[in-house]
Specification:
Layout (H helix, E strand, L loop, with lengths): L23 H10 L14 H8 L4 H9 L22 E4 L6 E4 L3 E2 L7 E2 L8 E5 L1 H6 L7 E5 L5 E6 L9 E4 L5 E4 L19
Antiparallel strand pairs: 1-2, 1-9, 3-4, 4-8, 5-6, 6-7, 7-8
Length: 202
């Protein structure tokens, strides 16, 4: 999936049967050390036990996407509560693990890629962006992507690229299996919440 600014500390790659570590405290500490801005409001970090408990109700595949950074095949995805990847209803896409709001239907667009695509998150504090640690280990730097994670649970969502539409030029390419859709009045999409790609260690 998707490229953007990052908290940029490598997360340990999850091995089979091993959940991704939360690590938000370490990421925030590193951001402060690097002189990067901290979030305006703190998102409560979930414990590993809370993450595992919340994941129990999900399918094995949904768990693989969220906890082990798997990617669903294009044009096939469904949210954890059964809405298709190309759902056009108004509403809010939240984390099925933390429940935090992540993306608004008002920022959703048809990218032609076969994955839910958004030009900005609901709130930049609710997501973390960093160089994909697997790409960093296995690919030349030219091909490194920026991974997008739910800030509260540090679970994988997808990636962000620089080929999106106005007003941000960003494409948050997100697995439907990493989202839960809540129908109803959607929050306004804020272009200022989109990735600025202004912070990098490289």
């Amino acid at each position: 999936l998707a490229f953007g600014p990052a908290w940029l500390l490598p997360r340990a790659k999850a091995d089979a049967g091993q959940a991704l570590p939360s690590g938000r405290r370490e990421l925030l500490a590193a951001a402060v050390a690097l002189g990067l801005p901290a979030p305006a409001h703190a998102v409560r970090e979930m414990s590993d036990d809370e993450i595992q408990e919340a994941a129990k109700s999900l399918s094995k595949f949904q768990q693989r996407v969220l906890l082990k950074a798997a990617t669903e095949p294009a044009f096939t995805g469904e949210t954890t509560n059964g809405f298709k990847w190309d759902n056009k209803e108004e509403g809010t896409y939240v984390s099925p693990i933390s429940g935090e709001p992540l993306f608004s239907s008002k920022a959703k667009f048809n990218s032609g890629t076969g994955w839910p695509s958004f030009w900005a998150p609901v709130n930049s504090d609710n997501v973390i962006e960093r160089v994909d640690p697997v790409d960093k280990q296995t690919l030349p730097k030219l091909f490194w992507r920026t991974e997008v994670l739910d800030a509260a649970s540090m679970t994988h969502l997808g990636h962000v690229f620089d080929d999106g539409p106005a007003p941000t030029g960003k494409r948050y390419c997100i697995n439907a299996a990493a989202l839960k859709f809540v129908p109803g009045e959607a929050p306004e999409a804020d272009p200022k919440a989109a990735s600025k790609r202004s912070a990098s260690l490289f």
